[in-house]
Amino acid sequence: MLTRRLFLGAMPAICAATHITLHAGTSTPREYHVSPKGDDANDGTRSLPLKTISAAAARSYPGDTITVHEGVYRERISPPRGGAPEDQPIVYQAAAGERAEITGAEIVRGWKPLQNGIWTVTIPNSLFGRFNPYSDVIHGDWFVPKGRVHHTGAVYLNGEWLAEAASLDEVMQPGTGAHLWFGRVDGETTTLWAQFGTADPNHELTEINVRQTVFYPEKTGIDYITVRGFVLRCAATPWAPPTAEQIGLIGTHWSKGWVIENNVVSHSVCSGVSLGKYGDQWDNTSANSAEGYVKTIERASHSGWSKENIGHHIVRNNTVSHCEQAGIVGSLGPAFSVVTGNIIHDVHVRQLFTGAEMAGIKFHAAIDVEISNNHIYRTNRGLWLDWMAQGTHVTGNLFHENQSEDLFVEVDHGPFLVDNNLFLSETSLNVNSQGGAFVHNLFCGGVSLEQYDSRLTPFMKPHSTEVAGYHDNPSGDMRFFNNVAARNGDLSPFNKTRLPMKLDGNVFLKNARPCSEEKNPLLETEFDAQIQLTEKTDGFYLDYSTDRAWAADRKRNVITSDLLGEPVISGLPFQKADGSSIRIDRDYRGSARSSANPFPGPFECPDGGMQTIKVFETGLGYKL
Fold first, then answer.
1. Alpha-carbon gap, residue 252 to 258, rounded angstroms
2. Looking at 425-495, which runs of residues are DSSP E strands?
3. Which of 115, 241, 254, 557 is within CB 3.0–4.6 Å of 141 for a Cys-Cys bond?
4. How far apart are alpha carbons 425 and 378 in whole angstroms?
5. Domain coordinates of the chain in residue numbers?
6. Cβ(479)–Cβ(502) under 8 Å?
């Protein structure tokens, strides 16, 4: 246990000696309580709580816990220090059974009616301090503004945001679509105009973005922080490309060992949860080039990017929604992390702007990252693994209603493993990579395949951030074993590839199309799997018809590291993150697979027939 350092702040030494003696040299962890009814002059006990979370953060050291009681906290939390390994994090948690909300927004009153449900308000710029979201223009590498200016500000009516208009004239001539707002900043004030319909903004909960982020350390290297059980909302986050600092509504800022769990994260102008990169003078100077990102990787290696220093985060059981860039984003910083059990939805659905970074989850360098048991839907793109997906394991996820595709793998050389997933959107895969394995999945959508990408992108030494070499990206060198393709499932784009394919044990139902490189696929052209996903009060259920003949007519292998072999380019074996061998002997539900003849698809159901399977359980249930 680390010795607690003496925190004197600005107090005279004699005062500090009188009042803080108990903190010096003790190893006993403390619990600080925070309540809207508290006072930051209190000592932080349950009976005498602090008023702000920031005040508790300033007093906390490794092993301490900050328990936040019910209420709305309008502040930015910037932890001044982190915890320590060996079970000594600094824990920030909502009190059990209490709704503690931390928001980047402030309530604004004094709106004046103009006409037809349009109102205006003028706010002194002193409310914003050094950062004014209404003059902060969204910009950066790979950002596409669609021919207009966008700001990180937002206006909220009863928790839901309005859309930024391109001009004041657009607000003053309301249509029948989404309600709009527009802002204008001068030297002293910020003026907002907004369409509120029949609502009176002075009698409803009307808020505006004030803070850039909600929970994000100003310094890098603030390790071993746990954030648990909060509602985190409303941040004026900037665009987060892989070549710049990636500030999310909540983010780890180039650190190690965070646990972000059981939170509701919503209404971030760009990204919700960030596991991303630090910032430097090279931010947003890459001119959208692959060469620029290669230089970013090289600089990161000189800035501490290693297995010892960065990543190893756990992001689990959160609900992330209403983000216009990414639900969870990270360049380089997510390495060696686990992202599991999250609900991610309504990401980039307004599409006011666009670019190359939009997805439910968007990772660069997902090295030895596990992405498991997440529910990702109503996003533009479900999961995007861009550059250096090596040792990545995507398993047991539910994808549906994603507009572009459920999974995009871009310029990765593998090995990466995708097993036991439900791909239910119109397009299942977009493939511009090699060295991957797709095992025991259900594909209901088509596949887009890039035949060749000339960019030279890195592959790494095993279980490491160290670059082993660079290679271009020819098509092929993919493995498809024991999958079921239904509806529009289509592996025929792999009929012709530059590198050889490995396919065996796959089943194709009704209109689904096989790859001609598979020697003996099972074609059930008359079989309708009757796939339907239904939401009920306790979760999502899948109706799915199977046939016992799929097992009786074919002998399939249990998929192992030995069977998967090694990707052509990286030359590395398919392994778990700890270096042990892979054996796919469990299905989507965690049930054991037959060791003699595993059933195809994500569910082990050798008896066949119609299955009604609970595929995702309802999460936290907070009302946003």
1. 7
2. 427-432, 436-439, 442-443, 446-449, 452-460, 467-474, 479-481, 484-485
3. 241
4. 10
5. 105-209
6. yes
Per-residue tokens: 547: 């046939």
The answer to whether the beta carbons of residues 257 and 62 sit under 8 Å apart is no
Which tokens belong to 248? 């999310």
The answer for 433, left when phi > 0, alpha when psi is -120 to 50, beta otherwise, is beta
Would you state the structure tokens that stand for residue 388, as one six-digit string? Answer: 């250096």
pLDDT on residue 619? 65
With cut-offs at 50, 70 and 90, classify the pLDDT of residue 7: very low
CA end-to-end span of the chain: 39
Q: Which ranges of 149-194 does DSSP label H, i.e. alpha helix?
A: 168-172
Residue that the structure tokens 């059933």 belong to: 599
DSSP structure class, residue 210: -
The DSSP string of 482-539 is S-EE-TT-B-GGGGS-SS--EEES-EEETT-B--TT-SS-EEETT-----EEEEETTE
Closest by CA to 288, choosing from 242, 248, 333, is 242
Task: Using pLDDT thresholds of 50, 70 and 90, give the confidence band for residue 174.
Answer: confident
Token reading at 149: 């200016």
Q: Which residues partner with 161 through β-bridges?
A: 156
Structure tokens at 478: 């993919």
Here the tokens at position 328 are: 């969870």
CA distance 218 to 370: 27
Which residue(s) pair with 557 in the sheet? none
Our CA angle for 624, 319, 427, nearest 5°, is: 115
Could you please report the per-residue DSSP string of 541-591? EEEEEE-THHHHT---PPPBHHHH---TTT----B-TTSPBPB--B-TTSP
Q: Where are the beta strands (DSSP E) in 116-269?
A: 118-124, 143-144, 155-157, 160-161, 163-164, 180-185, 189-195, 206-209, 225-228, 231-235, 250-251, 259-261, 264-268
Mean pLDDT of 322-335: 98
